[in-house]
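Possible regression after last week's pipeline update?

I re-ran a chain I had predicted before the update to compare outputs. Posting the input and the new output here so someone can diff against the archived version. Not blocking, just want to make sure nothing changed silently.
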Amino acid sequence: MADATLTNEPSDLPDTQSYPPPFKPHPSDTLYGGYTRFELELEFVTMLSSPLYLNHLASLKLLQAPDFLAYLTYLQYWSRPEYIKYLNYPGPTLRALELLQEERFRTEILSPEVVGKLMQEGVRGSVEFQGR
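New output (post-update):
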């Protein structure tokens, strides 16, 4: 009887519309420090699920920079089904991307009370921003 364990061989992986899995970059992918753009953006959006990281970005005044805000808008593509499946924490990550589109949230995330509330709600599994 054949062993049912996955070996990460292409034949063992689900079909992803002929795209290689993210851990095996396509030979034509440009590498940035040894990583593909997909891998770098995945790591970054994953970090957005942390209220402490959002607070850190706000403290650096990045959440006021027009170029950074444009990048956050660009990252909305992670909400599409073909990308969401790669997120470890899709709920908090996508909620953070959504909240970061609001100017009021970008200001209020500097508050330790808002960060604490987001952390508590994230632990319960339902991140809601009610600081309005």
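Follow-up from reviewer: compared with the archived run. The two ends are 60 Å apart (CA to CA). Marking as no regression found.
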